[in-house]
Description:
The protein is α+β, with helices and mostly antiparallel strands. The chain contains 11 helices and 24 strands. It has an 8-stranded mixed sheet, with helices on both faces. α7 crosses α8 and α9 runs parallel beside α10 (485-498). The longest helix has 19 residues, at 379-397.
Amino acid sequence: MRKALEALYTLAFVLLSGGVSAGEGIRLVPGLPTIVEAVAPGATVTLPFEAAPGDYLRGRLDVSVGSFALEVVGKDGKPWRRLLDDIGLSGDFQFVAGDAPSALRLVAGPDGGAGRLTLATRLSPAEQRPPAIGHDSPAIAGVAATIATGGTTDAFWSHAGEVGTPLIERAEDGKTLLTFVYRGARRNVRLVGAPSGDHEWLDRLDNSDIWFKSFRVPPETRFSYQLAPDVPELPGSARERRLALLATAAADPLNAAPWPDDASDRFNAKSTVTLAAAPVQPGMENTAAPTGEFIRFRFASDRLGNTRNIAIYRPRHFDPTDPDALLLLVFDGRSYQREVPTPTILDALVAANRLPSTLAVFIDNPDQAARSRELPDNAIFADVLADDLMPEIRRRTGFSPPPGRTALAGSSYGGLASMTVALRRPEVFGNVLSLSGSYWWSPPGTPAAGANIVARRVATTSRRPVRVFLSAGLFEREHGGADGILETNRHLRDVLTARGYEVTAREYAGGHDYFVWRGALADGLLALFGRGSASQIIKDKP
């Protein structure tokens, strides 16, 4: 029966000139394809359809030969709307019928055309209703049902207080469902550092005191976050309005894993999520205080026009004559002593004989403006590090390793700097630990075709004697249309590999987050310098 109906609405057209109609009584029927064959160049085929004003129509054009344009025409035959223009393969279309439309018209391209047109859906205004409200989270669905029958939210909040938040449930697709909740905000709640890679607004459940948002995440997920209730609504710029969330952002009051432990107050603390399958963060098993000593000094640069703090961590019993010893220089130095306890991590890895003895140099930024100016691919900054800072380190420590035992490390702009400085001065810095490097960055005025300038530089210059560890978070995708950190890191990984660089790449189920980077830093050190099987890091993911 189905084949008979399709045959009834199948039409072969052999056209001699333009403007020929589909024929008397032949109309497009939703769900039944109409075959169009051998349409001459520039010729047209008109296919009437039935629709009332306000009907929603959706369809697809599949072209097998040549090309077509597709337009809606009125009863007078005049075009009302162009739906598809010069389609040579396939295209989807949709529109809402007004008073004028009565037919779809195919216009063959310069080589003629043949194909199939299917009007897949037609919905009247009465049928155009959103799906019934449902909730991915069983816990939220349960309390929603309770509220609908006149109950309260007390039992829900009692349960949330007992198990802690976010609520962790199993999704139908096998992934883990995280549901973030907040109680009693008046206007809004924003989730800062959501596993979507953006700062997400929570939804209010009916008119209750529950604000919530659910996310499907991999079982290896690890990240930190804050909740910002009643974010001020400001009259300023979009950036000013976005930054206003910092006025109220604080740790989740029902989360049992705050970080860091010694935060001065809840506004300076974050809450953390570490699912059962999250990978071990090497060196974080024992967070004892570092046993080495610090050498701190101020480093002034005439060429950069500023002064910054430098801290050198010299492990206990460090021997500058040891041929296996390493030199690690880390950007955003203050954060890599606090949020990422690098000295502690180094002590643990060295004590476990997983890493050679390592001297670490922490490079601070004079201020945020200098950070934004110096870290993104700055040739002068690269020369100051190689020609001025390195001699000062040698003078103060007596340690002068070859480039193969020297590494640059950093995250975000610091990851970008690690790569660009090493590519500019490989005779000094032979290893790169780039954590969520900002390879989306390009100088002001760079055309769109110039995006990922580091990958382009690698592709168009001779290979440097540099080894690379790249990491990125699965939640670091861009939401504005351009490639984000995850995509640009993957592109750079592929270009480095194609050019013959030694590259190890790792992706984490996390975001742009020091809570993730403390593990990525250790993974990078072990990938580049680790001893034995402990240094085997999972290679590139597709």
